[in-house]
């Protein structure tokens, strides 16, 4: 198998597994505040096992893409994904809960 095919196969597998992991890592929350100028959102949420948080809390998160802030408004129930980085926690995906 050529090197390029192996790389493509590994990338496809990573995307497939990443999608399954991302679904399991969704955190339920509620939008409390949006600061578009700073690119931040305040979320009240339940336990976030994917971030090592066992207790519910309210936190300010950065957003990976400022366009995410236009998808929700204060008071919305949401499902979101976040990751921890050098500068704190960052929301990588968010959508209104159904």
From TrEMBL:
Q: Which Gene3D superfamilies match?
A: Copper binding periplasmic protein CusF
Looking up Pfam families in the UniProt record yields: CusF_Ec (PF11604)
InterPro entries cross-referenced by the UniProt entry: CusF_Ec (IPR021647), CusF_sf (IPR042230)
Q: Keyword Cytoplasm: yes or no?
A: no
Q: Which residues form the signal peptide?
A: 1-22
| Source species, domain of life | Bacteria
UniProt KW keywords = Signal
Recorded protein name is Copper-binding protein
Native source species: Bradyrhizobium quebecense
